[in-house]
Design a protein that fits this description.
Length: 221
């Protein structure tokens, strides 16, 4: 009986390991897909005009980057949903994943439709960001960011894009504005910068808990 139980446990363990291996290989293929050559955007006439959205106030997070971002966007749009209000409503953070963040954006800003776009090619990502900025809407996104010298999974907000100057303007709820080149930006939205990522996070990406090259586009209903 014991031998039979051990055999079943071994088979289950082998199956779980196989699933993880397959998932990691699929994730590698996705990563290869999104990291396309974006050099053409520098000469594309569409991006001649630099765009910067004014009037978006930086909010330094107290509870979570997701809540701070919702406060930034909602205040800009005249709604004023505060990070403190969000935390008080739930007593915890409910925006840890892209799907949950998108859901909360739609809940708090019902007059707008927030759509999550994940695993975008670099060129598609920059195109959607530019279009949204051109329409007067800042762009929430997921990326790798450092806090106290350690890499984290983080939300921030794109408020400006100057392709000709190779500069993206980002409000980071860790408390500061960043100006990044496209290369720096894509290295972090793809999480390539997070080179020493723990295995449990690698598995979380491969199983679809977290996503790479992911942005959230808001449009009026």
């Amino acid at each position: 009986m014991l031998r039979k139980i051990l055999k079943i446990m071994f088979i289950l363990l082998a199956f779980i390991v196989l699933v993880f291996i397959v998932a990691l290989k699929i994730e590698d293929r996705k990563n290869t897909y999104i990291l396309d050559n974006y050099e053409g955007v520098y000469s594309d006439e569409k991006y001649e005009e630099a765009i910067r959205i004014e009037g978006v106030d930086l909010v330094q997070q107290e509870h979570s980057c997701g809540y701070a971002l919702i406060e930034m966007v909602s205040t800009f749009l005249g709604e004023g949903v505060s990070e403190e209000e969000l935390f008080d409503d739930y007593g915890k953070v409910v925006t840890s994943t892209g799907k949950s963040f998108c859901k909360e954006m739609n809940k708090r800003l019902p007059q707008y439709s927030t759509t999550m776009f994940k695993y975008l090619k670099n060129t598609d990502l920059i195109d959607k960001v530019y279009d949204s900025l051109q329409n007067g809407m800042p762009v929430p996104f997921e990326w790798a960011a450092k806090k106290d010298g350690e890499w984290t999974l983080h939300y921030s907000l794109v408020v400006g894009l100057d392709i000709k100057a190779d500069t993206i303007y980002v409000l980071n709820p860790y408390g500061y504005e960043e100006e990044l080149s496209l290369e720096e930006f894509f290295t972090r939205t793809s999480f390539v910068a997070y080179s020493d990522m723990p295995i449990y996070l690698e598995l979380a990406f491969s199983l679809g808990v977290f996503e790479r090259n992911t942005i959230f586009i808001l449009e009026p209903k």
